[in-house]
Amino acid sequence: MINHEVRTYKSSENLPREDQLAWKIAEVASDPVAVDAEVTDMVINRIIDNAAVAAASVRRDAPTHAREQALPHTSKPGATVFGQPLDETVSPEWAAWANGVAVRELDFHDTFLAKDYSHPGDNIPAILAVAQHLGVDGKDLVNGIATGYEIQVDLVKGICLHEHKIDHVAHLGPSAAAGIGAMLHLPTEVTFQAVQQALHVTTATRQSRKGEISSWKAHAPAFAAKMAVEAVDRAMRGEGAPSPIYEGEDGFIAWILSGPEARYTVPLPAKGEAKRAILDTYTKEHSAEYQAQALIDLARKMGKEIDDLTKIKKIVIHTSHHTHNVIGTGANDPQKMDPKASRETLDHSIMYIFAVAMEDQGWHHEDSYAPERAARPETVALWHKIETTEDPEWTRRYHSTDPEEMAFGGRVEIEFEDGSTMVDEIAVADAHPNGARPFVRENYVEKFRTLAKGIIAEEEQDRFLDLVQRLPELTADEVRELSFVVEGLEHTGSKGIF
After folding, report:
1. Dihedral of the CA atoms 298, 299, 300, 306 (nearest 10)?
2. What stretch of H or E contains 398?
3. Boundary (domain end) residue, out of 222, 251, 280
4. Among the listed residues 197, 460, 407, the one whose alpha carbon sits nearest the alpha carbon of residue 295
5. Where among 228, 252, 280 does a domain terminate?
6. What is the pLDDT of residues 354-372, one digit of tens each?
7. Using one digit for the tens of pLDDT, what is the confidence trace for 307-336?
8. Which domain holds residue 198?
9. Burial of 254 (0-12, 13-18, 19+ CB in 10 A)
10. How many independent structural domains does the chain possess?
């Protein structure tokens, strides 16, 4: 890996494009290095993972409305939409939109955390949609997805967005554009312009994940992916973009991030170096914000050891800055303690999540968020006894670059009415690569089977799983079948413009 320093340049300094971050990203995309076998295997796992969580959400309002928006935009050859017959295709940017919302709706697919946050699986809907539309085979699709993951992970390692209240999808637009560029073997110049345009139009504030969180949380990455497809299309036609987008005097760093004096270091693969960043990412066993994954596992463990939860006086979760300030009491969001809060808000409340996981000894992507579940008096009582606090050591471990030190959990102290205490801690979720039960192919398939049960016919499940597990060998026609059909899928008939 090469560490690239990125800073603002005055217009009079005339920064050569070859020294710009967007160009260096485009160079990685256009490098024809082979994809490692273990990377290919993980790409397959994540396509299965995305399909699993999309199946579970396919009848929910946000994915249904996104699908209804997409379906009028028919196109041949086009791209498939989750749930729809395989021969009913739409324009690829609209397939990226509809499928991206379905994937993101339940907050249940993969994650990578470093200087910023990300769900790298959000790259897949856009890259796959373009592959289907343009007749790309499985081998090139794998390269595109591996590249999308590489660029997003590297940006997340180098540039913090959340400290400036910028939503993490600002890293997704450039990564999806780079992935599409790699898959299509586009010249560096074309991908360079697409990356810049994608960043320019996908920068938004983090209010989508603050306060009264709405379904836009699921739409935001789908929008970024849709914009990336359009950015590549414009660039392929010879259109340019604001440049230099990162380093410009009025650009991203100078006015949206840390200002003209700031310095960022972004690691990127050297020429000829394999793109392996997908192996640094991890998926979710539970449908909740990633920082809740390990704490759900710990809540189950601790709850099992307590005979009477009503005897608890107070629970304090000592954890990282991010967990405390985004999903903990440090957020100062009263909605996180409100039994009438939206599902999107509850999955960003570790107080609620820890209480329910203790009581139920598990977590379910629908039942655990049901309004009647959140309103149980005993749950509300326990929930309101929980608070979080930042522990500098957990913050340090959260940001550690050492895989053996990196931690996304915390230490939990429970005080009982009789004065006794219980203390336990967990560093990473059980399903994390360093956890007690790391996810392997069998777990991804099981997750898909579990979430697809009662939604996708078993024969259709078999067809999809058999197909995706041959991914690098697939022909262009077979890539066009990488979706799933839901029999009798209904729509709301909602009325909009389209």
Report:
1. 120
2. helix 392-398
3. 280
4. 407
5. 280
6. 999 999 999 999 899 999 9
7. 999 999 999 999 999 899 999 999 999 999
8. 2-280
9. buried
10. 2
